[in-house]
Amino acid sequence: MRENWTEVGTGAAVLVGAAAFLFYLLNSTGFAAGGVTYPLTASFRSAEGVSVGTDVRMAGVKVGSVVAMKLDPTTFRAQTTLAVADAVPVPDDSTAVISSEGLLGGNFVEIMPGGSLTNYAPGAEVQDTQGAVSLVSLLMKFVGGAASGSGTATGPQ
After folding, report:
1. 153 found inside a domain
2. How far is CA 142 from the centre of its chain?
């Protein structure tokens, strides 16, 4: 009889641990019900490193996430839909920038607020955007610039 209670207690502890892990997972990925949001759209030349679920941050604080992405077939730009927390007003002269967390970190959408006294209405489009900067293209420019600038001068002296 005592062995049964030990097994039941161990099973209960495993279930509590699994539930705690699931709670942590849902909260850290943003899938938990986090309140009411409103949509904003933004069009980027390059949305490299951004996907559905990517954080939307303001001043380093997560205020929402990317909820949809598609390619606009007429402009060939990445159309993104951002879900921003209802409690966070976004001035209508703000800029949406795809930023990097560092050399090895992922990308996120950063909203840099402007100084306007009026805010975006739900469903509005952020007009001022800046796409992702490709680390590979920057390295290629650096390597290409260093190689072309390393030769000796051949002109008259």
Report:
1. no
2. 26
Burial class (CB in 10 A: 0-12, 13-18, 19+), 144: exposed
Q: CA torsion, points 68, 71, 73, 74, in degrees to nearest 10?
A: 90
pLDDT digits (tens, 9 = 90+) for 36-57: 999 999 999 988 889 999 999 9
Closest CA to 78 of 113, 130, 152: 130
Q: Considering only CA atoms, give the Rg of the chain.
A: 24
Below-70 pLDDT ranges, the chain: 1-3, 24-34, 134-136, 146-157
Residue 77 lies in a domain: yes
Which of 24, 88, 25, 22 minimizes the C-alpha distance to 59? 88
User: Structural domain of residue 114, as residue ranges?
Assistant: 35-134
User: pTM, whole model, 2 decimals?
Assistant: 0.66
Domain membership flag for residue 141: no
